[in-house]
Amino acid sequence: MEITFKAINDPTRREILVFLIGGAQNAGEIAKQFSMSKPSISHHLDLLKQGNLILAEKKGQYIIYSLNRSGFELVHSWFQGFAQYFEFPKPKIRL
Amino acid sequence: MEITFKAINDPTRREILVFLIGGAQNAGEIAKQFSMSKPSISHHLDLLKQGNLILAEKKGQYIIYSLNRSGFELVHSWFQGFAQYFEFPKPKIRL
DNA sequence: TAAATATTTAAACGAATGTCTAAATATTTA
DNA sequence: TAAATATTTAGACATTCGTTTAAATATTTA
Fold first, then answer.
1. What backbone torsions phi and psi does residue A36 show, to the nearest 5 degrees?
2. Where in the sequence is the domain holding B51, given as residue range(s)?
3. What rounded mean pLDDT belongs to chain A?
4. Interface of B with A in 62-91 (CB under 8 A)
5. Which of B13, B38, B64, B83 is found 20 to 30 A from B47 (Cα to Cα)?
6. How many CB atoms lie within 10 A of CB B60?
7. Tally of structural domains, chain B
8. Does residue B77 lie in a domain region?
9. Is residue B79 pLDDT above 50, yes or no?
10. Domain CATH number, residue B78
């Protein structure tokens, strides 16, 4: 969980995730979207992969990245507890 | 948005949020939950407040912290795009 | 096989982060 | 008013993070 939240923390990585909603892409195409070196993007992709937010599949000399349901499910379920709180707020403590 | 994700990134801060599901608490009671100095917790509370994830209300010499719907709504709406991509089941409660 | 292409790994470095102790501020109580 | 309590602010410091350039690995093409 720690690594998944960490992966989501960076703005560039969040942009990569949003970009991938449009469909799977190879590393080079992803890197083109950003004014940043390819090694930096490669590093961000690695962290997103560690957080189970994307999948990597090697296709020849390319590596195709796509969104991974698993990481999003983790975060989604963490938020469910709060969704319930806001629907049924508990009384404040007595002072 | 940046500051909200940043606030959620730290494990101690996430624990504070989960703790507050149980109801509003003053800073001292929150600090008791952790083996960490009060100034550190105070700092974490400040970041959570900046991220609109908690509210602070002064009551005498105490400061009462409670969950703030606003920050959670922000993150939740960001996730909606992915929920649609993955076709997550819709939650019973909408944030 | 050699060159070109795609991507990652390694090393370095400044900036940001989380923690601590000490001091400051605000409020309540004796 | 002085002391006690609650909390924050300030300053310091080690660790983590994001970025870069240079080098390495893997694959395809000429």
1. -155, 150
2. 2-86
3. 92
4. 62, 64, 66-67, 69, 72, 75-76, 78-79, 81-83, 85-86, 88, 91
5. B83
6. 8
7. 1
8. yes
9. yes
10. 1.10.10.10
Q: Identify which of A77, A55, A73 has the alpha carbon closest to the alpha carbon of residue B87.
A: A73
Chain B CB contacts of A84 under 8 Å are 93
A46: its two tokens: 């690695």
The reply to whether A13 falls in a domain is: yes
Neighbouring residues of B56: CB distance < 8 A, sequence distance ≥ 6: B45, B49, B63, B64, B65
Count of A-B CB contacts under 8 Å: 81
In whole angstroms, give the CA distance from residue B11 to residue A49: 20
Instruction: Give me the CA A67–C1' C11 separation in Å, rounded.
Output: 31
Residues B5-53: pLDDT tens digits? 999 999 999 999 999 999 999 999 999 999 999 999 999 999 999 999 9
Q: Is residue B91 part of a domain?
A: no
Does B55 fall in a domain? Answer: yes
Task: Give the C-alpha distances (Å, rounded to integers) separating B41 from B36, B45, B47, B89.
Answer: 7, 6, 10, 36
- Which backbone phi and psi does A56 adopt, to 5 degrees? -120, 130
- Which residues on B lie below 8 Å from A71 (Cβ)? none
